[in-house]
Amino acid sequence: MDAPVIGFSKLSKTEKVNWLVDTYFDGDIIAHDTITRYWNQDQKLQELHDGFSENTITNYYLPFGLAPNFLIDGKLVTIPMAIEESSVVAAASKAAKFWLERGGFKTTIKSTIKSGQVHIMYKGLHNEMDAFYAFAKATYYNLSSP
Question: Which Enzyme Commission number(s) are on file for it (predicted)?
């Protein structure tokens, strides 16, 4: 890159990909095809993924594995894991089996107060959103109380 790029965030996704390929891969069509190969064919789903972050150009997939047999507070559960390292999934599964035979994992709630944010994009009626928010807030407060 010889000079700073100006207005990158204003470029379309395709323009960003072309800029990347031209700037760092000398216009190589294989680089371009590799980047676009991971785009979801379902346009609405792809638009949702693009909205997760800024300046998105493609998706980054990780293998999605499962580590079963976790006994947590007397309940058997399976833990999903998105990770490229198979030994981590294997080790988690082995640990789950080890602790399953020894009573499993026990948890203790130290606090139910957490701060966070909820971002909602809604194009409907404002009063419907207000009503839903009031309902959801009360519901989640009740569910999270000790």
Answer: 1.1.1.34
* Token pair belonging to 28: 């190589």
- How many structural domains is the chain composed of? 2
Predicted TM-score (pTM) of this structure: 0.57
Long-range interactions of 86-95: CB distance < 8 A, separation 24+: 89/65, 92/67, 93/67, 93/68, 93/69
pLDDT, tens digit, 9 for 90 and up, residues 19-41:
999 999 999 999 999 999 999 99
Residues in contact with 8: Cβ distance below 8 Å, sequence separation at least 6, in sequence order: 16, 19, 55
Contact criterion met (CB below 8 Å) for 13 and 50: yes
Q: Is position 27 within any domain?
A: yes
Residue ranges of the chain whose pLDDT lies below 70: 146
CB 8 within 8 A of CB 16: yes
Q: How far apart are CA 41 and CA 30, in angstroms?
A: 19
Per the structure, the complete domain to which residue 75 belongs is given by: 64-100
pLDDT at 121: 80
Give φ, ψ of 107 to 5 degrees: -115, 155
